[in-house]
Every structure is written in C-alpha cells, then in structure tokens.
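If it is no trouble, might I ask you for a protein's amino acid sequence along with its backbone structure tokens?
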Amino acid sequence: MESIYSESFNAKSTAKAVDLDHRRKINFNISKYNAVVPKGKMQFTNLPRVKELAKNKKWEAIEHLDLYLTQFEDQITKRGAKVFWAEDSEQALNFIGDICKEKSCKSIVKSKSMVTEEIHLNGYLESIGVESVETDLGEYIQQMDGEAPYHIVTPAMHKSKEDVAKLFAAHLGTDINLTPEELTLVARKNLREKYTQAEIGVTGANFILSDIGGIALTENEGNARLSAAWPKTHIVIVGIEKVIPSITDLGLFWPLLATFGTGQQVTVYNSIITGPKQEGETDGPEEMYVILLDNGRTELLANAKSREALYCIRCGACLNACPVYKNIGGHAYDTTYSGPIGSVITPHLRGMHDYHHLSDASSLCGNCTEVCPVKINLHELLLENRREAVVAGESTYAEKFAWKMWKQASLSRMIMNQGNATIKNWVINKMFKGWSNQRAPLEFPKKTFNQLYKESQIRK
C-alpha cells in the first residue's frame, strides 16, 4: 500500500514539474552556483586526489566512530562543556527543554543547522513558550514565510529578490522596492537586537574535531559566531557522523566544503570552539552543552553497503547537479534532507516503508556521484535502497507481476522478437500506468538488435 508520504511526494512533484516560474528561479540560482564552482576548484592542483583523501578520512572516522566520539567527549568536558548523547529527536528536545527551564529562557537565537530542522526544534520551542529566531538570512526569510528550508546550503533558493521584497513588506512594513542590500540591512538591524536579548544561542557543527575536543563552524554571515558567543549559554546540536579525526584535517575539509557548497576557496568566517569561556577570558558563553544526535544514524552505520552515506559533509552539490531536484525542488521531498543524499539516507533514518519511494525519484544518471567531494557512490546507493525495499516486502503486487513478466520475456529470445513495437509500447505505456503517469512514454524500436544482426549477416 502506498504511504501518505509517497502520495504527497507524487502530488507535489507533479505540480512543481510543470511550474515554469519555479523552474526559472531555481535554474537561475543554480546557474550562479555553477558559474563560481570552477573558480573554487582551481585552488586544488589535483582535485581527484583531494577527494580521495577526504573520502579516506571520513572512512577512518566512521569505521572508528565510537572511539573518536568518546575522545571528543573526554577532551571537551575537560574544559567545562557538558555532553549529552541523544538516541532520538525526543531525547534531544527534552535535553534542550530542561536547559531552557533551568535558565528561565524566554528567547533563543539560532544559527543555520539542518540537524535542528531534523528534530523540529523551532516547533518544540514554540510549544514550551520560548521564542526561537533564525539568524541566517536564508533561514530568517524561510521562518518569516512559515516554510522549511528548501535546500541544504541555500534555504531560500526558490525565492527571487522580488519574492523576498514582498515578504519583508508584508511582515516588516518595508518598502517593496528595496534592493537586496537594503533588505539585508533591515534583517541585520532586527537580528542584532535579538542577540542582545537571548538567554541561549543554538548552533550546529560542520565538523566535530576529535583530537582537541572542538566543534568547527564555517559560515559567511558571522551569525553563528554571534549565536555561540553572545548569549550566556551555548547549545550545540550535531549528528554523530560529523566527526573527523583531527584539527589538521580542516585544511582539507574546509576548502572542499566551501568550494562545493558555494564556489568559494574558503568561507568568510571559520571558527573552532572548544568549550565555554575559560578563566581569564572576557568573551564567550558561561556554559556550553553539546548534544550528539543519533536519530537513526547507527542504523545506517550497521548497514555495510550504505554506511558510506555517513561521509556526507552537507555541501549540497548533489542537489545542484540532480535533474530531478532541479525540476521538482526541495519541498516536494517532505524531508529535512532532499535531493540525492536525502533520498539515500532518509529511508534509513525515518523508515523504509514510508520513504522508499524517494529512491525511485532518480534518473540514475550518476551526476550526483560525479560531483560529490567525498566520492559517495550516491546513484549506486539509490539502487541499493531499491533492492532493500524489495527484500523488505515493500513492492506492490502489480510491480512484482510486471517484473516477473519482464524476466520471463527477457529470458526468451523468441518472445522478445515476436512482439512488435506497437504491442510493446502499449504494454508499457498503457497497461502499466504507473510508468506513463510520471515519465515520458517509451518508444520501442520496430526491430530488436537480434533481428537486425541476423539480417545483416544474411546480407553478407
């Protein structure tokens, strides 16, 4: 039986695929990304070698995840930070709720973090009476519009500058003719006031540094630094897969993430945080908490074939390269992580029954694998998900019957040669409506290769 998530995906993707205005906006924004990435890549003299090194580092980290995470905990707790291990979203939210209660927190400032979207932090904070303010400009725009992030790196990619101007005019009373620079200054002014009022700052982490017990943040706006340093309490929420062995590995990963994320050689602000304010220091939070989130990641870790999906550094390159994503957009997926990487990991994080349909939403062109900076075999993992879904009994009777008939026909050269193109076209495009509903019709050749080959031999 088709899940409600599959039905929603089919409905939303069908609508977006014919929305030409939507396609124009995201293709425009992705074209700007495509124009600058080659410039970022020029900093690497041997990019294939760099990508291979990055994959090997992530392999080392994930294969010894328990050791590196405990080393991180030992190091950062020595400097006064408190580490919580959250098995799922509920535990993570309960930890945060307890901290908010203890601090009598009324408002939180929050930097861009996909893992907080994953656990639906903003909704939870609202339910307990705590204001949560997104401080990344793209996230600020999306929160104002009541929408989830559209893209892993560029939350408001689907909005034009005119869309943003209309949104600010409706919610903040600004002039609808303001330029992007002027709109940015309006957001900056409003957010600066929020930093001074907030009792708690929340950030994610781009990387967990095992050897020194630190978290690494990379950004372009400075909002993560302000969220981490200005409020008296700093909470870090990070997936356990973000660990890398050493601080020295940042010389590899920061430029890779910048290049494949935004086309830069390195982002504007890069921070390493190793605990709360120490004795004699004047800046920084008085208390720091780190929540290490599992939330299905160890299930993926236990899967020997799909484990490499945990190497992902969340650059978003596979989304920008994916022809499916560029046609249906991020919101059609109804998941925190969209595009190829989301289609790979979501069935493992949130259940194969509800989300195996995402692995079917791929052309298997391999472009996602080609652009991945840590060489994750994304298109092969999508096929592996399809196999696991079949093994788990997620196939419909119609699908099983269709493949059984296809197998029987494929094993018989006589049957393959007998059916003419008109009959074959009718069987696929009319009888199996699931194919033609979501795809262009197939057109079989009038003669099979076998028939053409035999005819060529006769002519000889």
The longest strand covers residues 233-239.
